[in-house]
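User: We ran a pulldown and think these components assemble together. Before we commit to crystallization trials, I'd like a predicted model of the whole complex to look at. Sequences follow.
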Amino acid sequence: MAIKIRYGDYLGLARTHHRVISYNAITSWDASHRRRPHLRSRDIYRLLAPYVGARALEQARAVLPVVLFLVVFQYLLFQGRIAGGAAILSGILAVMLGLMLFMEGLKHGFMPLSENIGHLLPVRATFSGVLTVAFILGAIATFAEPAISALKMAGSLADPGQAPILYQMLNGQTDAVVLTVAASVGLAVLVSAVRFIEGWPFKPVVIIVTLSCLALTAYMTADPALAPIVGLAWDTGAITTGPVTVPMVVALGVGVSAAVGRGGNPLSGFGIVTLASLFPPIGVMLLGIHTAALGEPLPVAAAIGTALATEAGITDHILAALRAIVPLVLILWLIQRFWLREPTRHPDFMAYGVGLAIVGMVAFYVGLGTGLTPLGIQSGNMLSTVLDNGGALYPAGVGLAVALLFALALGFGATLAEPALNALGLTVQTLTDGAFQKSTLIYAVAIGVGLGTALGVLKIIFHIPLAWLLIPAYLLALVMTWLAREEHVNLAWDSAGVTTGPVTVPLVLAMGLGLGQASGARDGFGILAMASVGPIVSVLAVGLWLQTRDRLMRIDLFGHSQ
Amino acid sequence: MKRTYLAEEFIVLTDVVLITCVVQRGMAEEVVQVARQAGAQGATIFYASGTGVRERRLGLLSLAVSPEKEVILIVASTDQADRIFEKMYQAGKLDTPGMGMIYMSPLDKMATHVPKGIVERFAH
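Assistant: Here's a predicted model for the assembly, 686 residues in total across the polymer chains.
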């Protein structure tokens, strides 16, 4: 008779050898023998590989499409070669590495602090205390914004003959400009905090602020000495709303609105970003008027000195990174420790985060100088050779079409690759119960940015004063704002701030400056400003269309409109 | 008359165990695939968050361990369970601290769709 073996026992034979230990034995022993587990090198690899890999992939996905687009476009349509390709490539790798480290450092070094402050401050501090911290937080976050250094790079390209005040502001007074921008952002956060506490609706605030901004722009444009500053001023608005300011300021806003009982709506933190991108133009324009009023010309020797300083060495980058990050962390920590009396939960994680952020920022600065800026300037220069009458490549009309198509595609593509927009789209889809689809928002914003970029390029090519494009665009946006629903208004204005990330800003800024330089424009600013107003209009348009469609569907259902 | 579609009798399976495996977010797909190769019929995955005793002692390396986890539930026959358990342990790289854990618990019974042919063959 056959021998019977249970199938499970047969399978058991194939098993790896294992030993059995009682967990009881371990727990009684463990209490007196606490120590760090011994890690084999393969354990460290297994732990670190997914951690690093996921973050590297995220940055690659944000940076590479834009860069590839620029390179392919230059190669195919402009038939140009990239000068210093190896240096640019290493620069772009440095930018990706820098952003990866910086974002991770931000997550561990800053975000716990600013989230704590956002939650605890409104509960534990007085009204004036909240406002003070709101102002300080907004201002110092601006200093730590990676893209703000692009402004300094822009200074070396201004022409002292054609735009003396702009030149002076960018070379002798860069610190004053940055300070003004920082103070403006601080003020914007302060006003938003008051708005949350007092419960003001967003619409009237944004309409008043935008109208005063436009009035100032009109005044500046009328004065030929002041006109070149308009572009710079509006571009700073796009620069400030980056990966440091937005989350920090939104955390504060959500905390404040939760504390005054208007929380629960994730959109409640919105609106701050809009004000933070509208106040800096006002500030910088006022600074321009002030500089013009003082009217002291910059000594040429000093100007050359600062121009040389833009080709900074590694020590300068390290100093700049320290200056950007250390005060921010220090102030956040002091507020939390001594004002809110809240202990730091993971001091080692925080130190790690701050260290990463500093290293990341240094790498980003290095990459900005050797990679993104040269690539952007080359693209701008090449764009203008396509347009030149003597250009053998294309006839004049076709050249213009190619240039505009290039700008359109650049704005569109860079926006699609922006990770912040994806997150915003998801939030919006959840909030509107799917009425505003994620892809609808992303494409609306991308088309807006694309059209805006193209208009900006047009402005530089034909030397159109920025105000002529900007004022009608914003007036259109204001009319639509008046008609649209409050939630669509919040969304439209904030999506403009979200789209201009730390890679797009320096690239587009450098491209504009390169184009301006080659085509003899007074200044190469304004593309970012146009790229910011574009999505406001396009998202509002989609919002209005959704509203109208709702109304039409109701007419269909009931046969009459009421 | 209102008809109820409840079957008059239903099949209860015995000799089953539950394997529960907690892994890092994003690892579940791979672990489940291995489990299926080892004979598991299906798996339920849900998202969870948690921290372990071990990763708190990893120092800075614990930053690489996300508190976000995936929990895999697999009901297996007692015969296959040990093999599936072992394969999942290897695929989840659970011998590295912070990667997760796996456990197996006895079940009294389970019920699901059982094909008719199988019922006729085994039910008594």
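Residues 27 and 39 of chain B are 19 Å apart (CA to CA). That may be worth checking against your pulldown data before setting up trials.

User: Thanks, that helps.
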